[in-house]
Structure formats: structure tokens, C-alpha cells
Amino acid sequence: MTLTFDDILAAQARLKGHIERTPCRHSRTLSEITGAEVWVKFENLQFTAAYKERGALNKLLQLGENVRSRGVIAASAGNHAQGLAYHAARLGIPVTIVMPKGTPFVKVQQTRNHGADVVIEGDGYDDASGVAKRLCEERELTFIHPFDDLDVMAGQGTVALEMLEDVPDLDVLPIPIGGGGLIAGMATAAKHLKKDIRIVGLEPAMFPSFTAKMRGVRTAQTNGASTIAEGIAVKEVGANTYAIARPLIDEVLLIEEPHFERGIALYCNVEKTVAEGAGAASLAGLLAYPERFRGKKCGLVITGGNIDTRLLASVLTRELVRESRIVSLRIIGDDRPGLLANVSRIIGEMGANIIEVAHNRLALDVPAKGAEFDVMIETRDAQHTQEVMDALRDRGYPPRVV
């Protein structure tokens, strides 16, 4: 079994008119931040907000009538589930999705909204996949694998076809790796069209599945770790995806959690678009390893935008903390009337905003006649924060960052 360029061309023809032909745009600001020449493919603009519907639909369109009537089943943490459920509903095919516990609520709800019968079971993708295969036999359904399937890989490969149609002289494609379906399809298409293009795989440091297989380790050791990039948190890559992708990949890089978070925040603040953790992996790679991509024309894919709104809010707030735009300052002074008013006035005069104040008279490291304040403030940037701290120090209220 192998994947050919002709398979991907056939998938492109099959999918035409059924999915979005998403834009690939140059980002001047992200280019300035990363040092690379950044082009962004907005797959979060698909109807289900992820590229996964390409592979799912390509598979569905090739099923026989008797298979369609019985129905299909899949295991997925979210995006394959939504893509499969949406297009199966369009084609009149019954669909069952097994989703692992801990799948973001937004993905569960949207999958149900597309008409799927959702079963929540298993601690991760691998457990959910086992449940799905059992139900597949019991109910005589057809199992549609989210990545280790040639038709699915061919559909995902159409992403690279479109990118190189729009920007033929791309130097590097940094591609997220979960089960390996996307990188297998994209690398097959890209290397056929441009032999010298570099293919760089990116996977969460907590789930180094592809890296583990390259090193001869059967299963990545995750120790129950949880990553914000749950869409690519797979313990073991597919046998077919690995066999196809491995010869085409130039390098695989591991990404730590803060870089995923920063990627999400930059897409939101710079491109005004929403990316989930896995969806921001390509940008996270440029942030984590700038020297690998500096000066190169890089094609980044926002693979998905399905992120829980509370998690998105948390990520954006945490980014403000990283940038020292939200800071908690501890101030110790005499417990006398007017102390808090004086501190508040100084902060206000400096143009900062007070978010929260905690007043502690009982801390044992504070004098009995003293008081301790934790004041959380919001500023324009790190320099502004330093100016506020200098002003407090000059007025006799030396702060320290908590």
C-alpha cells in the first residue's frame, strides 16, 4: 500500500465544490516576529473549522451504496469527528463517533449538532479507537480511520496542492504530526511538485509519537501528560502514515506547551483568527526554533480552530502575564489610613489599571503594625510595568513582582 501523487490529484477533483478552497496569505507581522517569511493557510475557515473534513469526505465519496446504508464509525478527539459527521449527514450516511473522555466540550457538542451518535468512552484516542472497533463489529459498520487510511491521507494532501498553487516557491512546510495523516499527504504532494522543499514535522514534547518510532521505541511514554494540542496527542502513529511520511520528512521537532500557547495568542492578536492548540503547531515551531526557519519562505497551516472558549480566554490572559502586561505587585508598608489610597493614586497617575487587590495584615513576615498588599495591575507593555514599579519605589512603596 502506498500513496501516490495521482491519488491526491483525484481527491482534489472529488472534493471540488464540496469544501472551502481556503486562502494562503502572507503575514508581514508574523514574518517580523519569527524572522521567517510566513505564509498562512487558513484551514480553520472550513465549515467544521478544520482540514480534517478533506480526508473524511474523500473516503465517504468512495463508499459503496450498501456500506453507506449500514453506516460508518470513527474514533476521534474532535476534528475528524466533526468533518465525518457533517459530510456523512450531507450524504445521508448514519455515523457513530467514539470520543475520549476529556475531549473539549465544544468539539463534542458540535459533533452532535452535525447529527452523529456520540459515545464518550476511553482515556485517550487509543482507548476510544478500541471501543470504536468493537462497536464496528457488533453493529456491522464501516470503520473510518482518522489518519491511517490512504483515502484519508490523499484528502489531506490536497492542502499542500493548494498551498503550492498559491505560493509555488515555498522553501519549508512545518507540519503538525499526530497520527501522521496530514504530513503523509502533504509531504507526498509537496515533494512531487518541488523536490527540494523541506518537510519539518512538529509534535508535542508530551506526545513524541513519531520521534519515538524513529528511535525504535514502540510507544511514546507520556506518563498521563495533558497537552493543549490534544488534536495531535496520539500515543502511536499509524503504520501506513509512518511508512509513507518517514522517507519524505527532513526533520522532526518537539514543541513545549508555552510555544503552543504563544502561537494561539499570536494568531488571535495578529491575524485576528482563532486557532486551537494543534492548529497553532506550525507557528509554535517557528517560535521554538527560529534559527531553523530564519529567512526561509515558510508555509504554515492553521489546521483547526475548535478551541473551548474558556481555554482560549485562559491562554490569552496567560500571554498577557508572559508579556508583563498583567503583573501582581506585592507592597509592604505601615498599616495606617490612606496607604492603599496613595498606592492606588500612583498607579492611576501612571496610566495603569488595577484589576485586583488583596490586603493581608496577618502574614508573619510582615511587622505587627504593618500591612501587605498584592495589587494586580494591567499595563501597556513590560516597559510601562517597569515605569509603574519605579514610580512606586520613588514614592516610598518599593514593590516586588509576585
From TrEMBL:
MF GO annotations: L-serine ammonia-lyase activity; threonine deaminase activity
Full protein name: Threonine ammonia-lyase
UniProt superkingdom: Bacteria
GO biological process assignments: isoleucine biosynthetic process; L-serine catabolic process; L-threonine catabolic process
Pfam families in alphabetical order: ACT_4, PALP
Cofactors demanded by this protein: pyridoxal 5'-phosphate
InterPro entries assigned: ACT-like_dom_sf, ACT_dom, ACT_ThrD-II-like, Ser/Thr_Dehydratase, Thr_deHydtase_catblc, TrpB-like_PALP, TrpB-like_PALP_sf
This protein's record includes keyword Lyase: yes
EC assignment: 4.3.1.19
